[in-house]
Amino acid sequence: MKQFKNILCAVSTDESSRITLERAISLAEKNRAQLTVADVLPRPPKGVSISIDATLPTDLQTKIQEERLQDLQAMTRPFQQRLPILHKVLMGSPFLEIIRTVLLDGHDLLIKPAENPKFVKRLFGSNDKHLLRKCPCPVWLTQPKEKPVYRCVMAAVDFDPEGTDSAEQDINRQIIELSSTIALSDSATLHLVHTWDAPGEMTVRVWSDNPDEAAARYVKGEHLRHQRGLKRLRQSLIDQLGPEVYDHLAPHLHLRRGAASRMIPKIAKQLHADLVVMGTIARSGISGLLIGNTAEDILEQLKCSILAVKPSGFVTPVRVAGGDSPG
After folding, report:
1. Is 171 within a domain?
2. Which of these, 32, 18, 147, lies nearest to 78 by C-alpha position?
3. Which tens digits make up the pLDDT trace of 54-105?
4. Element (H, E) at 262
5. What's the domain count of the chain?
6. Are 214 and 238 in contact (CB under 8 A)?
7. Exposure of 326 by Cβ count < 10 A (0-12 exposed, 13-18 middle, 19+ buried)?
8. Contact 192, 252 (CB under 8 A)
9. Is the distance from CB of 146 to CB of 305 less than 8 angstroms?
10. Is residue 50 part of a domain?
């Protein structure tokens, strides 16, 4: 079972922050974790003053931060008797300041409402994309109409059936651990989803004397390979949870043929998933700036909350101080 120790909840002034804050508080309580509630404000333009008395920009910045800090404290006041809560008001680029806070304070989970640009039909805004690409800890982005309790949690796992890639195994372990913990916490149904395909089918048909039979044999072989891989993943989940907890959770396993970029969003919609837990780094590399192409295609189509994880060896390009991150 995953145990968080230091949770960062990034909020704003809109209504979507309330349910996200309540979920972060519940998580912190159940994990006995430290909770920090933070907001990031833009820096005042140079030369701007509060009034005609020509207040210095530094004074303006201090005043704005103090007022927002009071707002954060008022927002969390109903929960202060349940657990201690730290408050932070940051200034600057939202994704940069959030990641720097994660690095400085050692947070092991970031949870925040997803930005929802009204001019597009996608869930995640530019700051969210930067966080998904560059934040070193798991990133939990909640949808605007977030449910206080999830009914369906979907874990999207990817693997090479014959591979022994340690990064791949690590990220699948994280996905399984996080999704099962949340499903158990909310008494939600857990669905473990893996997609597969048979990319060599056309080649087999071209070079075979009996195209239909050869292609069918090849496709069946690919299906069996992925089926065995999913069974191994199921066994690793049993080993992680223990047989009794696994039986109580009773996860549903799905093995679907098709491109992950098309099938994962489709299955999430069919299941009415409240949360999709998935990895966001391609197999080809751990360190770097770019999210995996398939992962980004999937995220563009999802309409539910997501929890995105990276391999343990991921190194963020963001630095604590000095210089901005690459765009």
Report:
1. yes
2. 18
3. 455 667 778 888 999 999 999 999 998 999 999 999 999 999 999 999 999 9
4. helix 260-271
5. 2
6. no
7. exposed
8. yes
9. yes
10. no
The answer to whether 195 touches 258, Cβ cutoff 8 Å, is yes
Helix (H) or strand (E) holding 265: helix 260-271
Same domain? For 87 and 122 the reply is yes
* End-of-domain residue from the set 100, 121, 148: 148
* Chain center to CA of 219: 33
Identify the domain boundary among 101, 129, 148.
148
The answer on 182 and 123 residing in a single domain is no
- Per-residue pLDDT tens for 131-162? 998 999 999 999 888 888 999 999 999 888 87
Q: Which of 98, 182, 175, 91 is nearest to 135 (CA)?
A: 98
Q: Which domain holds residue 75?
A: 1-45+57-148
**pTM of the shown model:** 0.88
Same domain, 164 and 123: no
- The distance from CA 319 to its chain's CA centroid, rounded to whole angstroms, is 21
Other beta carbons less than 10 A from residue 97's beta carbon: 20
